[in-house]
Amino acid sequence: MYYWKERNDEVDFILRKNKFVVAIEIKSNAEKLTKGLEKFKNLFTPTASFIVGDGGIYANDFLSLDIMKLFNMCYLIIDSTLVDTTQVKVK
Questions:
Q1: Domain residue spans in the chain?
Q2: Which residues have a Cβ under 8 Å from the Cβ of 6 and sit 6 or more positions away?
């Protein structure tokens, strides 16, 4: 687990497992975009990136997720809700 900062831009949590990188920004307000997260995405192209808080994934959803599934891209964000794609049944 890492923290990234370049000048005034930052990302709260960078998770890395082998070649997979996940960037997580924590917000207490309803921001849906952060300059630091966008810059990190442009520079490093992480496997996944998201905001936890009112403007992104709800905190209770984030706290209940299986962290290892982030590295396998098993989650989608739909209307601020984290959906585990391994549990979705396709008709």
A1: 2-82
A2: 39
Report which residue type is found at 56.
Answer: G
- For residues 16 and 46, the answer to whether their CB atoms sit within 8 Å is no
Burial 35-60 (b: 16+ CB within 10 A, else e): ebbebbeeeeebbbbbbbbebbbeee
Identity (one letter) of the amino acid at 83? V
> Cα(37)–Cα(87) distance, rounded to whole angstroms?
28
pTM value? Answer: 0.74
pLDDT of residue 35: 92
